[in-house]
Amino acid sequence: MKRESLVGHVEEVHGLIVGGDRPADQTFREFFKARRYLGSSDRRFIAETTYALLRYKLRLDRTPGMERIAARIDAVERGLPATGDLAFDESFPPWMIDLFVSRWGAEEAAQLARALNRPAPLTLRANTRKCDRDSLMRELAKEGVEGTPTPRAPQGIRLSKRINIFASRAFLDGKFEVQDEGSQLVSIALDPHPDWKVLDACAGAGGKALHLSNLMRGKGEIFAHEPDPRRREELSKRARRADAQNIRVVDRASIPARVDAVLVDAPCSGMGTIRRNPMIKNRLTPEDLLRHQRQQIGILDDYARHAPLVVYATCSLAAEENEAVVATLPGFAVASSDTLLPHRTDTDGFFFAMLR
User: Cα separation of 223 and 201, whole Å?
Assistant: First the structure.
């Protein structure tokens, strides 16, 4: 496809993301699904160019002569010169850079901001109900898909390049899920026993519930609670493909009074996922952190009463959503906690704490 046409597609999807309220990665999936005539190289140009524009939107908005998409594309392709102003150079709101500096110091704040502006790797998790990591890597290699073992998650595979992995035979056979290594480490932190009853209180589309099923070797029971009916449907579909027969998708009224452990992967600002959804840094405000905090405290207090052991997790980097939240839970003490930072671990940013 000619460059002029590709630029037109970039302008269209860029407008959908900036003018909408859905995550960028979800918008891209729907955009490309409706335009199957686009080849792989065309899709790659459109996605990579649009992401670059989103990552540096705040800076480009403040640069004269950058009103048109074509001018912005030319600017990011040439490379934006450094000025010494970290917030401006990396296109972050100053308050967010101040947050990073206050927590980790100026040098690490710069490393973190730059890491959040780099594309996230595509990471898989082998479904141990059907295979192990080594056999999955061999099978994927036969399909021309190369990857390396993740350094921390024992069943993770980091692919060498981004491809349409959902078309692979191994995916259709339910042998893996796409899941960031940091997300995998959250479920591992819970360390569920095979005979446990576990509540995944904010299950979403089921990534962590499916991993818990693997960790429990398909035994015990996992009660996956998710209020959104579309996500519940996706969770059920993924569980069937993965042969995760110990997952029970439940509504609030069907949650058992007592279970052995609870995972609260709480709704949050998503600050740790800026690599995937750059518009987060353009839209998020300090007031949003406090709004999320109030919701998180309520959710944690509500679900913690079901078990003596709770793992609380977010994909946020803000203490307001993390340490400040777990400190409010009466009757529980923090047994351990960890914060994953993209520049240290090459994962999404995550916080998780085990509460007893």
Answer: 8
Structure confidence by residue, pLDDT tens digits, 315-329: 999 999 999 999 999
- For residue 177, the number of C-alpha atoms closer than 13 Å in the C-beta half-sphere is 29
Q: Which two tokens stand for residue 194?
A: 């095979």
Exposure string of 56-85, with b = 16+ CB inside 10 Å and e = fewer, is: bbbbbeeeeebeebeebbebbeeebeeeee
Q: Which phi and psi angles does 193 have, rounded to 5°? A: -85, 150
264-285: pLDDT as tens digits: 999 999 999 999 999 999 999 9
For residue 331, CA distances in Å to 38, 254, 355 come to 56, 25, 10
Q: Report whether CATH 3.40.50.150 matches the domain 182-355.
A: yes
Asked whether residue 40 carries a pLDDT value surpassing 90, the answer given is: no
The domain segmentation of the chain, as residue ranges, is 3-81, 89-117, 123-178, 182-355
Class of domain 123-178: alpha beta
Residue 1 has pLDDT above 90, yes or no: no
The DSSP code for 109 is: H
Would you state the pLDDT for residue 77? 93
Output the CA torsion 327→331→332→333 (10° steps).
70
Residue range 175-189, pLDDT digits in tens: 999 999 999 999 999
Whether the full predicted model's pTM is greater than 0.70, yes or no, is yes
Q: Name the amino acid, one letter, at 233.
A: E
Nearest Cα neighbor of 97 from 287, 278, 281 is: 281
The pair of three-digit structure tokens given for residue 295, joined into one six-digit string:
């919701």
Task: Quote the pLDDT of residue 90.
Answer: 97
Helices 3-19 and 69-78: crossing angle in degrees, nearest 10, is: 100
Cα→Cα distances 53→59, 79, 211, 260, 355, Å = 10, 12, 34, 46, 41
Q: Are 353 and 311 in contact (CB under 8 A)?
A: yes
